[in-house]
Design a protein that fits this description.
mainly alpha, Four Helix Bundle (Hemerythrin (Met), subunit A), 2 domains, three-stranded antiparallel sheet, two-stranded antiparallel ribbon, 7 helices, elongated
């Protein structure tokens, strides 16, 4: 059986019979509710059994490590800083998708596609135009930041500037902050926005 897809719903209904999810392409208004899952949190109403906190945390921790590496690289290589920011955004978004039971949506290396899938599953803030714009800017750093033949001449280092690194860092922070906000609203018990000092 396919894993249910979480549907954002209004926060006023407080009972399991009001939970909604998709299973095998059908909407169920009254799904079976796991014993630990009778919880309505924030904008989402989900069976808590669907959430895999360990999976989210291991991907999210790698995103933090990658942003730390990006900050170190920013001191001497703007192109590598940009690439690492793009990678960190991927890691956080993939972690969220895998943790909510959508591992097939976590495949791929395009932040635009990954963020769109996460936005489709979870709604705001990941579905916002601001997140779409940030993911589009980050996607552009995947190949040009690493490969000389992506440029007419020279190396990637010749074509990147400090302002590029600053923009990529801000975009990655914004996307990761949005992922953390969604995860916190799901009632994971961990507010990564406070842990990492990121507010989106």
């Amino acid at each position: 059986m396919a894993m249910p897809t979480i549907i954002p719903t209004s926060p006023d209904a407080r009972y399991p019979q009001n939970y909604r999810f998709l299973a095998q392409g059908r909407t169920a208004a009254q799904p079976r509710v796991h014993a630990t899952g009778r919880v309505a949190v924030g904008r989402y109403r989900v069976r808590m059994a669907l959430l895999d906190a360990d999976e989210f945390e291991r991907w999210r921790e790698q995103a933090t490590a990658t942003m730390t590496a990006a900050a170190i690289r920013a001191a001497g290589s703007w192109s590598w800083c940009c690439f690492l920011c793009e990678q960190a955004a991927q890691l956080a978004t993939k972690g969220l998708l895998r943790a909510i039971g959508r591992p097939s949506d976590a495949w791929g290396h395009d932040p635009v596609t990954l963020v769109a899938r996460a936005g489709e599953a979870m709604g705001e803030p990941l579905s916002s135009a601001a997140m779409a714009d940030a993911s589009a800017r980050l996607t552009r750093h995947d190949i040009p930041a690493r490969y000389p033949d992506a440029h007419p001449a020279g190396t990637p280092a010749d074509h990147y500037r400090e302002s590029d690194a600053a923009s990529a860092t801000a975009d990655a922070d914004r996307l990761i902050g949005a992922v953390d906000a969604v995860w916190h609203d799901l009632g994971s018990g961990t507010d990564r926005r406070d842990a990492d000092g990121e507010s989106g």
